[in-house]
Amino acid sequence: MKATAESTAVVIVEDDDAIGRQLDRALTSSGYRTFWSRTGHAGLVAARQEQAEVVLLDLGLPDIDGVDLARQLRADLPETLLMMLTARGEEIDIVSGLDAGADDYLVKPFSLTVLLARLRAHLRRRPVDRVEDALQIGDLTVETAARRCVVAGSELALRPKEYELLETLALNAGTAVSREDLMATVWDENWFGSTKTLDVTMAALRRRLEAAQTAAPSPRLPTVSTLRGHGYRLDPPAED
């Protein structure tokens, strides 16, 4: 299970104002922190300064060839997710881009919805950086390696999707997580069923947390807040 992409730093290297604005707006509205550069050299500086997790790279830049820039980015930031967005759609161009270090290659014009879904999929497959295999939120412990939750020493009986939903929220405790990211993370970005399944699973998870609240001697448990029109947020218990 991977964390959602909220607050991930994304550097956009795109000299076309219309495309750059669209990318910046779409990514920002999805919770990413964006840094838009119109030249290759500015993009390289931004990626280094921000230690960008993601770089979206156009190949037709005014000051440097995008393939050369990709090689430099890969050498400087080997863990960064590098996605090429370009009008060069010939097979040789795609092969050159991937060989230069790109993780993905989208040919213009592309769908922003598809771009965001592919970005979420890439980030979901990457390791979550955390020191411990247990997340402590009040008296709730989420043991990610063991895939279990413990309240006041007793294991909380959760179905697989209930656990994954709680873990995703716990990894982003105090931060809003959109319905789209929850569906893509807990289920799949290609899920074609109704998102009602999220509501049903969330209701079941809330019932289990409420039951644990009454079963144990006054545990301090987090609460799940509904953010209408957006998603959910796991709020830590109030300080005494």
From TrEMBL:
4-aspartylphosphate PTM sites in chain numbering: 58
GO biological process, any: regulation of DNA-templated transcription
InterPro entries: CheY-like_superfamily, OmpR/PhoB-type_DNA-bd, Sig_transdc_resp-reg_receiver, WalR-like, WH-like_DNA-bd_sf
Protein name: DNA-binding response OmpR family regulator
Keyword terms of this UniProt record: DNA-binding, Phosphoprotein, Two-component regulatory system
Portion annotated as DNA-binding: 132-236
Gene3D superfamilies according to UniProt: 3.40.50.2300, 6.10.250.690, Winged helix-like DNA-binding domain superfamily/Winged helix DNA-binding domain
CDD domains per UniProt: REC_OmpR (cd17574), trans_reg_C (cd00383)
Residues annotated as domain Response regulatory: 9-123
Cross-referenced SMART domains: REC, Trans_reg_C
Gene Ontology CC terms: cytosol; protein-DNA complex
GO MF terms, alphabetically ordered: phosphorelay response regulator activity; transcription cis-regulatory region binding
Transmembrane as UniProt keyword: no
Region annotated Disordered, chain positions: 211-240
Ranges for domain OmpR/PhoB-type: 132-236
Listed Pfam families: Response_reg, Trans_reg_C
